[in-house]
Amino acid sequence: MARALQNIGETYMVTDDIKKLDNASHVIFPGVGAAGEAMAYLRRKKLDSWLTDWIKTGKPLMGICLGTQIIFDYSEENETKCIGLVRGLTKRFPDDLNIACRKLKIPHMGWNSVTLHRDHPVFSDISKDAEFYFVHSYYPAPADNSLVLGVTDYGITFCSVLATKNLVAMQFHPEKSGRPGLQILRNFCRWRGNA
Amino acid sequence: MLSKRIIPCLDVRDGKLTKGIKFKGNVDIGDPVEAAREYYEQGADEIVFYDITASADGRDIMIDVVRRVAQTIFIPFSVGGGIRNLEDMRRVILAGAEKVSVNSTAVTDPKIITQGAQAFGSQCIVLGMDVKKVEMSGKIPSGYEIVINGGRKYMGIDALWWAKEAENLGAGEICLNSIDADGTQNGYELNLTALISENVNIPVIASGGAGKPEHLAEVLTEGKADAALIASMVHYRTYTIAGIKKYLNEHQIKTRLYW
Q1: How many domains does chain A have?
Q2: Residues 6+ apart with CB under 8 A from B203
Q3: Is position B257 within any domain?
Q4: Between chains, do B98 and A99 touch, taking CB under 8 Å as contact?
Q5: Number of CB atoms found within 10 A of residue B60's CB
Q6: Over 70: is that where the pLDDT of A195 sits?
Q7: Does A131 touch chain B (CB under 8 A)?
Q8: Number of domains composing chain B
Q9: Distance from CA of B109 to the nearest CA of A (A)
Q10: pTM of structure
């Protein structure tokens, strides 16, 4: 992520220190790993309550992958109570996913497309033919369907991007998704959070 | 729907490509970072680096290569060859590689798979398997045996058993190389690939034998592979990645066409 931001010429800082985070204009909340461990870490660093306060400021927040999964109330991974910025939960892909009688593998790993339901500043100038790099076994399921910005098919159709007010959160990795991914990061850095 | 991945493989020794790749205008280049940039721009979905360096100095050079590649391309890439312990894995991942692959070391010391998966997540750990066709036997019921040291040392381990075992140990993906098909450019080992891919629930990258786009079409359908590794057919500019992908899409195999 740092290298991607460097490549697009943005000033960034990688930190888990809430004092430093207070000075930011934009926050990117990426993550790989498991929900249980991640939440324990965030609580220890008081980042869960910091994020709850940040979202109220109206300044932009971007969730990526695990960072997206744990903004909900709950994750099925390690049966974890999460931050609760968004109503809903993170679910595991069913074990018996099939397409044309062929069993689908878990994790969902590789390039897949995203069908957008509406326009959003963070997704401006993104071709509908663009694909994005995914690697995950759990997927976001917001309680309010109107938050779903984009969906992806992998045996089931799941919410791969959601957006509300100053929050945009995606399951795929923009920093590993080539030029369209870098464009999303660029758009986010220009966004004021007033979608 | 998920696209099938096309993955060029670059062999590196002491920070240089072992075989130069033909660049635009047929210039031969030996710099792995420039080669990675070229394939990134050509539409590679991922890149595999295989480091055949023997010396400790060479390893440090490779870490520097990984760092520079990570500043240059924004797609996943993996590094294999000479990963002997958790510390080797850590260095490669911190330098910016998305995945590390373990091959011989995993056979002699399988706990490295579990340790790696626990430390970095399963999605980071690729099991590289070198496999040779042998007579079916009680010991090798699938008729495919694991070999190491570039195919010279037979391990008495059944390839199908090992693939399942590695999945249980925490491998997130398998890169399956047929020593028999490798270098022939006569096509992938389809039976082997389908056998492994149908019996594990993690993605399988087919490797060894690619010579023309038809071979990729076969291995991604009949061979049930999730991704295909290619080398000479693109290194010598006989084919381009874009051309291969176009061919596959015309044959109803979905690949990523926009980048």
Answers
A1: 1
A2: A105, A109, A110, B173, B174, B226, B227
A3: no
A4: no
A5: 13
A6: no
A7: yes
A8: 1
A9: 24
A10: 0.95
Residues A7-58 have pLDDT tens digits of 999 999 999 999 999 999 999 999 878 899 999 999 999 999 999 999 999 9
CA distance B65 to B50: 12
Domain presence at residue A151: yes
User: B11, B14, B180, B226: which one is catalytic?
Assistant: B11
The rounded mean pLDDT for chain B is: 94
β-strand partners of B100? B79, B125
Q: Which residues contact B189 (CB under 8 A, 6 or more apart)?
A: B131, B133, B178, B180, B181, B208, B209
Q: What is the mean pLDDT of chain A?
A: 95
Ramachandran angles phi, psi of B221, nearest 5°:
-110, -80
Q: Which domain holds residue B232?
A: 5-250
Residue pair A52/A85 in contact by the 8 Å Cβ criterion: yes
Q: Do A105 and B96 touch (CB under 8 A)?
A: no
Residue A8 sits in which domain range? Answer: 2-190
The CATH number linked to B26 is 3.20.20.70
For residue B256, being part of any structural domain is answered with no
Question: Could you tell me the CA-to-CA distances from B189 to A16, A27, B158, B167 in Å, in that order?
Answer: 48, 48, 16, 21
Q: What is the structure's pLDDT at B57?
A: 75
Query: Measured between CB atoms, does A97 come within 8 Å of chain B?
Result: no
Q: Is residue A195 part of a domain?
A: no
CATH number at residue A116: 3.40.50.880
pLDDT at A99 over 80: no
8 Å CB contact between B12 and B52: yes
pLDDT tens column, B59-116: 889 999 999 999 999 999 999 998 999 999 999 999 999 999 999 999 999 999 999 9
A-B C-beta contacts closer than 8 Å: 77
Residue B154 placed within a domain:
yes
B16, A169 contact by CB (below 8 A):
no
Per-residue model confidence as pLDDT tens digits over B144-185: 999 998 788 999 999 999 999 999 999 999 999 999 999 899
Specify whether the CB–CB gap between A33 and B121 falls below 8 A.
yes
B118: tokens are 């626990």
